Protein 1
Amino acid sequence: MMDFVFFVAGLGLLVVGAELLVRGASRLALAVGISPLVVGLTVVAYGTSAPEVAVSVGAAFAAQTDIAIGNVVGSNIFNVLFILGLSALIVPLVINRQIIRQEVPIMIGVSVLCVALAWNGMIGVLESGLLVALLFAYTIFLVVQSRRETQRNAADVANEVDQAGTGGWASSRLVQVGLILAGLVCLVIGSRFLVSASIAFAQSLGVSELVIGLTIVAAGTSLPEVATSITAAIKGERDIAVGNVIGSNIFNILGALGLSGLAAGVAGADGLGVASSVMAFDIWVMLATAVACIPIFLSGREIARWEGFVFVAYYVFYITYLILSAERHAALETMTTAMVYFVIPLTLVTAAAIYLRSNRTGDV
């Protein structure tokens, strides 16, 4: 019972901490003259991924590398399949051309890099440093790019960052710094509660820490993305709904995974050990979901409701597969056969048809 209380408390602190961090940092950045576009693409997207960083880094320090890896991989899968899918079910999501041409290729690129670095079963400290360096390079790239934006676009992004509204109390620099510090404290405490409770759940249920990380922890740390994207979809701010997910996925790999590897090195390890089951299945699912965005996004440059349903259905299939595999259930073989000989081929044919149709209509 106490483990459940700690788990719920941890999730609550992560959500509150992320909200405080995003609100305080965005207000402070705007107040000191940082481009509103950069604030929208970095502070907001990175802020909603702060729980993933807190949990993965905390797990790395505690030598719970399966949770650190599973949290990042599982969160990226959850973000694309569940959050984008659910958002599209609420309202079809129109995709900005810049997201298709720039952000999605970057997301796919860092996903491929993640697979390459994990190929030998270990993401070393130097490789983790490379990921963090690439995060800085990506952020600098956004800063340089933002200077070329028109004043109209900058105002649009400023409005997006300010979507939650502000009161007079939030105009004080001291209050903004206080929000940032309070958010960080909530994230640290919440991550410790969540990791400890998750490990206890895994031990009591006989489920591996990796499965817990890929499912419960991954979904829990993605709650800020869920809230942001669904709220944005309901309000009709569809660029935010999509951009939040894509930006968070990039940050999860470069930031959460990179910092976790560095934390593992500080704790005395050689880096983050990657379980063979992750390399055999889960990391490829993560890469496949990233690649799947291309044909889906190109289909008239929107995610239709039926495509959103397919995304959510795939996530249900994925979670079901993990549970059946963990329990070594008799139905696992039947489900695997159905996925290999029916679902995956049908998906590939559908994706190819969408891509060819997009070529003919000039959406590419």
Note: The mean pLDDT is 79.
Protein 2
Amino acid sequence: MILVRAPLRISFVGGGTDLPDFYRHYPGRVLSTTIDKYVYLVINPTPLIDKVTARYSISETASHPNELQHTRIKTALMDFGIERNLEIGSFASLPAKTGLGSSSSFSTALLKGLYAFQGKRIGKGELAEAACRLEIDLLKEPIGKQDQYASATGGFNIFQFNANDSVSVEPVLIDYLKRSKLEKNTLLFFTGVTRPASSVLSEQKSKISEHIETYKKMSDSVSAFKEKLLAGDIRGMASLLHDGWMLKKKFASNVSNSMIDDLYEAGLAAGAWGGKVLGAGGGGCILFLAHPEVHGAMRIAMRQAAAKNNLSDFKEIPVTFTQSGTDILFNNLHPKII
């Protein structure tokens, strides 16, 4: 059996500039960090069962991978040439489609596990590119590359997306005290509304040429955010988050809506310095930076706004920033591959 863990991520600035329609004209940049919420994936050989099984929100058993409904598992198994005698199960800290990159975390966990199943090692950069190939090239999803790289790499990083489709990774090294202070000033709320990123990104991609100068501003804001992050200037970071969210709302009609606007305005009115909706938009999670003294008032205001919008699954998500990327936690098939 092989157990793999892949972290989810918070993307601070530059989101959307990882789309090829933009970065082939101007370098895209994203600054993000991984958090202590994970996708877990188990790969279990079943030598006496001549089928493939996928267990997630439902359970499927098929005679051949091409009969599976789960597109990532089906496509990956067929790409690896694995046709039978295997069971794959997945578990997660949070629901899918929350704007925290869980779909790509699933992909990095799946691919790292399948490489290990075949007795092969794979580096962080190779893993990220393999996940991009699975999602973008094979599954034809209209997404970028930031989530795959964030989950595979782990920690605070700046990812630069280059015109030749390569990705440069720059770790952002923050001392413990500044990182701890940022955690204490961070509030993350799940709206209770999930949505596939592709449903938002399809329209966004079609309009990139109309907003090219805005995308450039968002890409260039990464260096300013890095400076404030290293200086521990949380109010400055919050201001950049807010500015980026205001710009991003212009990209597509479904990035925001009245429900998201109500929640975001409630957080600001209760004392938040700034924030943003994570992921493509349309639902998912809202991130705020705010002094701990106003956190209590913000929680009350956010719950009231959620109740007004009938968001029964709304909740706060406590987060800690992490350093590790996609890891193998257990491997008794090939013990040396961890």
Note: The chain has two domains: 2-174+322-331, 176-319.
Protein 3
Amino acid sequence: MNKSILLKKRIISLSILLGLLIILFIASIFIGTSNMSFIDGLKALFGQGSQVNQTIILRIRLPRIIAAVLAGVALSLSGTIMQTMSNNVMASPSTLGVSNAAVLGANIAIIILGGGTIIANGGKVNISNPYFVSGFAFLFALGSTLLVLFLSRFRKYNSATTVLIGITFGTFCTGVTTLIQYFANDTTLSSAIYWSFGDLARATYEYDLIILVVVIISFIFFMIFAYRYNAVLLGEESASSLGINLKLFRFISLLLASLLCAVTVSLLGIIGFIGLLAPQIMRRIIGNDHRYLLIGASLFGAVILLFSDILSKMMLNGISLPVGAITSIIGAPIFIIIILLGRKKK
């Protein structure tokens, strides 16, 4: 394809995604389980109208919408880098065991250490000690990353080995989590299960700020070294010939990618398929040039998660469903279609 045509296609694709993101962001503000009119919602957005409406818009919906955008970006960036550095399109936060380890950490904090129980706060359900639980989830997620990377060193970070170790360790974490839940009482078990739901309703501005900081740092790093990621796709010998210390670069990249996932999962629960789906679709649309792929995957991940969140609030009248379930329901058939089309093309 002609370079100018390819560049035009990439710019158009990114512009469309940005437009969709803005439209969904605005629509999400006025879509919810309450029977608030558009005018009342608009007034509340600018600090006018009833106090109840202001609370719904500014303290419940807006943090949730921002969290959807940031989590979509974080998980998509994480999946993109994991797939590139492991040279495996199946690599994602879930296949490398990060999500499973986070759930194990949360279950230990809630069930064994008694770190959190479900509480209702004005119709919004929360964990009583969210930072303690999220902290344990984050430590276990990060620890799993370091363990997978350490074990992968023995096979020189072979792409298949890294993914297989991640899947195996993730299965181990799931088994331990099941045993812990088996001996839990009803209260702690329900709290642990609730935490594992990918639920944007628990988002706060404090959560958003934590994710934002990690996203900004990681995105800047990835974009600065975008040309290195392009070189990695050419093969290890090509990357080494360009003076890239591939072992160190792979370690730092996967660590940052896992950090993005660990922070997101520890605060919002498991949100599946975003990190796996967004990079694969954008590679087919705008190619493998990471200068554009990182931006495209980030935008597309945010669009998917915002759209899924809107569906989660509209599917049942007056009830907001866990968005993690919606992304899995949407993502699974799409991913199967991608696999089948890929095999047919091959």
Note: The chain has one domain: 3-345.
Protein 4
Amino acid sequence: MDRLATKYLKPRKALSTACAGCGLGQVHKKILLAIEQLGIADGDLVWGAGIGCTGRQIFNTWKGDNFAGTHGRVYALATGLRLALPPEKKILLTVGDGDAFGIGLLHLLHCARRNADLTVIVADNFGYQSTGGQYAWTTPDGAVTDSSPHGMQDPNWMQNGRDILDMLRAAGAGFLARYTSVEGRNAVSGIRQAIEHRGFSLVHIIYPCVTHFFSKAPGIRQPADAHRWLRDRTNPSPSAEFPASELTFKTGIFHRAGHDTTPEFGEQLRAFTKKIREGGGHDTR
């Protein structure tokens, strides 16, 4: 068994439930590497998961405390935990692109608006792959999927001048980053910095699904070829010849706010509660 799995994961849950060649294992390992570099013990962190491929792979693998949320609602549960738990306890969420940018987007935006101290890792495989490969919020324009056999025509969050990270920044997110699963140390470093950030942080990680998306959209059925496709489009050199409409990925830290910019939600409410208890609230007479 992998060293990190032995150290941090429950033995009966450590074996992957993902399809052969799936990039989710790479995402999971990067998170564990960041946790190890920070010296976080299993009792120091509560790990929540969403629904779909990401939830099935990662939920309840962590040796410490775990929880799961119904589709798109994990952020509301995490916010409640943030207020109930000691400030030094870390909260980490792993969700898919549907949980984050579809059904859960409103909850995610409110979590960013409040600047709750938690870290969200969005594992994005370009659509709803666990239910057969339907297109969704980050599926590339024109991609062939089960629900778009003639090419995806529904505008997405990642092309034509839009970037979902811009919306999250406007909502109040303090730390935002994007990577692909084929990246190494820089992705681990970004996750580590997100966990260290005091306030709301999110890391968007794109990974290949060889069972559905890659076999139908670019027509790639071999895992090595799928990972190569993603690597070629990760921070491509200016000399790379990709059409303007082709999806490529500029990765790294997208936004980092100063700690004094916005108060963390739990700290703000604890200070407010203390003020009320000491008789310093507003006079409502």
Note: The longest strand covers residues 90-96.
